Amino acid sequence: MKTILILIVGICFVSGADRSLFKTCGQSSFCRRCRNVSGPSNYVFVQGTLAVDKNSATVEIQNTQNFHIFTLKISGLMDNTFRVEMDEKSPLSPRFRVTEALQQEPILENIDVTISDSEIIIRSKMNRAVITKSPLKIDFYRNDVHALTFNGNGLLRFEELRTKPAVLDPSEDPDSWEETFMDEVDSKPRGPEAVAVDFYFPESEVLFGIPEHCDSFALRTTLGDEPYRLYTLDVTGYEIDSRMPIYGAIPVLYGHGAGQTTGVFWHNSADTFVDVHDKKTVHFISETGIIDVFVLLGPSPKETFIQYTKLTGVTNLPQLHNLAYHQSRWNYMTQQEVIEVVDNFDLVDIPLDTVWLDIEYTNGKRYFTWDKSTFPQPLEMMQNLTDLGRYLTFIIDPHVFVDEDYSFYAQNRARGYYIKNSDGSDYQGVCWPGMSSYVDYFNPEARRFYADQYLLENFAENSVTTGIWNDMNEPTVFDVPEKTIPRDAVHFNGWEHRNLHSLYAHMQTKGTYDGMMRRSNGELRPFILTRAFFSGTQRYSAVWTGDNTDTWEYLEASIKMCLSISVAGISFCGSDVGGFFGDPEEELFVRWYQAAAFQPFFRSHANFDSPRREPYLLEGDSLAAVRDAIKIRYAMLPFWYTMFYEHERFGHPVMTPMLTNYPHDTRVFNLDNQYMLSDVLLVRPVTSKNATEVEVRFPPVDGITELWYDVTNYNKIENMAGGTNFYEVDRFKYPVFQRGGTIMPRKETERKSSMLMVDDPISLFVALDRNNEATGTLYIDDEKSFNYHHGEYLYLRFTFSDNSLSSHHIDDHAHFESSNKLARVCIADLNPRPLSATYTNARNETRELDVSYPDDVLYLVIETTDISLNDEWTIKLNYESGAKQNIICGGLLIFVLVLQFGKHLLN
Ligand code: NOJ
């Protein structure tokens, strides 16, 4: 009965999360224990124990209350980063260390150490860490700027492993050795083992990070309230403005002030609560593990974000079509229906790249099988899609139906690949198929076996081009408290689930990625979408914000959530357009499309009981507005692709908060209803009903605002009082502005899908700054393979200055024979107006180009039809004495001279 009830709650959510299913800090013994700590700290470093090597200093730490000894190691790392590792010197048994989040062992930096009676100073390049003996604290300086203090408030608590005493100390928290939540007993065989410490960011005026929460981008104080919690959980109907944990958990937190941004990466995958005391102080509390912290010293926001991705990796450039529009719902029920959906898009002239299949395509939720009654010929369906220039993505969840006749289940069971109960039997819990077991992806052999399932030899009704959707991988178990695997379940090498819970999905996506790589013999870039994630998941997968709802608040939340996720390393983020639950009113639905067209992952999805809502079902103005939004996304695909290439190459976020580009404008620190794409576009989606205008912040730089241009018509935005502008919007308007000083590539030929746009020409949109200058980049390759890792690409820099636009190859060693030509160059607000333009390439070939000023737009157009992007070239604007005129004038002059000379001869 209980099972059925929870299943129903899981599927048919109406409004709000059932909070009672999920633990609060007060209901978690470890959180209570650590939250009760107050300073001054009772830890000191032990004189005479310092050991130093080239890159690190290690000193013993003592808890002065029970004399337990720990080691504290500080390492200097490349890129203004320190690592602090604190563990027990001789633990009863090894404590869990996260190993899968980092992309590789961090690169070390040389250090230099000095010691006095009261402190140890560790210098690394221009930075230093100063350990104060008693009470213990560590201050970090970037140059001479005090950037962070570890344990400044004395909240450090490191619970040493102990054998269970025969009689419990009455002063101890009563649930320290065993804990019950909603009738489920957590046996805690290792007893209490929490770790916690506070961090103080002296320069900070805003704290942000630690996704995933459905909350503001800036963290709010939690004193007297629930802390933010990081624990990957399936919270059906998650609420707005909530610090409850949801699907993802990334323990990186940033403090930003005008002169200094500092990051703290709390490298721990256990249940974690984060208290925010004020704009400068936080308190991290984890159930198990060690203290392992990366201190990112910035100093700018962008540098700090890059320091984090240097550690945890970036997203490989996606295949271009994954940046286009995706259509999903739970479920397209038959293979005919899939093709009908595509046909209907074509009928109303809306581009589409990928159709998604949810769980109903399978035979009874047995993944790696098809329901043959509804999808009798999956390969034929995939071929039909390819013929239409489209792709397919289907879902593979981590629960495996307990059914001996299902060979994937039986083989995993026989090989011992499932997560175990503490008694060694296979763990079982309820999910979509019914009673299920869960593959232990931490076991390399189990992960490999799972990955093998993607190979065509094992799953023939699959194709090398399909994308994969890993859902329910928090992992979700319907019939237990917190809807997930119990903490005392056991993984590979005997580690309890409590240590690594939030890494589970990460390990699944690692396996999926491996399977997809091998499926195409390493040729095609895998596309995976995951619901749960941890630090580093960006290396394998895109994410979306899960089961949102059809209200304006959730549209707003999609921006805040993706901003937090982006600065935590995962740039490929989006939300279910329209809201997963419900039936969005038409105005909201249109606005959601207009917003999502400017978010990295662009997919419409809906619950099984939501009325059908493919955009072709819209009519009139709404249909036109959605068509317009999807088409602008397609036109800008070269820009998106270039941004994702630059994310892979440099490590900064694609979608980024305003403070990344304007770190000194205090008015943008808390702003989370507008953002930037790279440093080129400012996006301010309309997120309220009946809006007639939106407030946009155009941050001043040195007291002056830059020039900005509306990307729909290149109207220049001027006269902003102090940088704030109220911009008029009608139903069709998506307020997006190109920054003066930038050049953006587009493909303007309208097609049904991105596959059909491969050879289309590029247009450049030049937005000049106050000095009449601009720069931009364009990246081109085969749009799908890894050949770009072997130099097969073009990476171009465009520069406009002195009335000339030029194109140069950024990497001389790179080469790609691009079929794309330059269609036209559009230059906004150019004064004075040139009369013509002259093209010259590196081989000194030259020709004249026509310029025009179309009535309906606010830019000059240079028609450039046959210019190859493979060449380096310059286009020079000609004014009164333009080249054409020169030739004509020169001719006239000779004619007059000849006449005069003839006259003279005659005389
Ligand atoms: C939960 C996911 O969040 C949702 O997007 C999906 O449709 C359902 N599971 C069914 O697979």
From TrEMBL:
GO cellular component, one term: endoplasmic reticulum
Gene Ontology process terms (BP): carbohydrate metabolic process; N-glycan processing
Top-rank taxon, per record: Eukaryota
Domain Glycoside hydrolase family 31 TIM barrel: 316-643
Molecular-function GO terms, alphabetical: alpha-glucosidase activity; carbohydrate binding
Keywords, ordered alphabetically: Endoplasmic reticulum, Glycoprotein, Glycosidase, Hydrolase, Signal
Domain Glycosyl hydrolase family 31 C-terminal residues, every copy: 651-744
Signal peptide start and end residues: 1-16
Coiled-coil zones: none
Domain Glycoside hydrolase family 31 N-terminal as annotated: residue spans: 71-275
CDD domains reported for this sequence: GH31_GANC_GANAB_alpha, GH31_N
Pfam families: Gal_mutarotas_2, Glyco_hydro_31_2nd, Glyco_hydro_31_3rd
Keyword Transport: no
Chief site of localization: endoplasmic reticulum
PROSITE patterns xref list: GLYCOSYL_HYDROL_F31_1
Keyword presence, Iron: no
Pathway(s): Glycan metabolism; N-glycan metabolism
Subcellular location: Endoplasmic reticulum
Similarity field: Belongs to the glycosyl hydrolase 31 family.
Protein's name in the database: Glucosidase II subunit alpha
Species assigned in the record: Clunio marinus
